[in-house]
Amino acid sequence: MPLKEQQKAPNFELASTSGDIFKLSDQEGEPLILFFYPKNFTKVCTAEVCEFRDAFSEFRDLNVKVVGISQDTISSHHKFKKENKLPFELLSDPKGKVAKLYKATIPVIGMNRRITYLLDKELKIKAVYENMFSADGHVKEMIANM
After folding, report:
1. Per the domain annotation, does 91 fall within a domain?
2. What is the enclosing helix (H) or strand (E) of 60?
3. Is residue 8 part of a domain?
4. Strand partners, 16
5. Could you tell me the residue range of the domain that residue 36 belongs to?
6. Which position among 9, 45, 64, 119 bears the catalytic label?
7. pLDDT tens digits, residue range 96-122?
8. Cα distances (angstroms) measured from residue 146 to each of 30, 98, 118, 126
9. What is the DSSP letter of 38?
10. Does 11 reside within a domain?
11. Over 90: is that where the pLDDT of 23 sits?
12. Is 50 a catalytic residue?
């Protein structure tokens, strides 16, 4: 079960493809989409990040920041970001600690589940969408809840 709506999002810090450490606490004041996905360069994950890429101008116009999180390395994220022309940052959660905080891991195997959270300006969870096998519903659901 993902975290519940209206719950304060757990704070975290992770390495980012920007070269900086991404701190959730620094994001207060603007809405934010956090999407957890299993693995760079896989078919459904690539489709998912490209869905977010293709809707990026709509999110930007609404002043909503988009951030993807997987257990891949920053090096892998840089290649994935370049290959897919992603205009948003990817965060590396190599041990899955943040994914666990957000209840975004598959028990026993520890791989990330495909869960997307929309956080409001106060970093409270406004909407949640989970679908492990579909890429396109995540963007549609976030736009519907803005």
Report:
1. yes
2. helix 56-61
3. no
4. 91
5. 29-144
6. 45
7. 999 999 999 988 888 899 999 999 999
8. 12, 24, 8, 9
9. S
10. no
11. yes
12. no
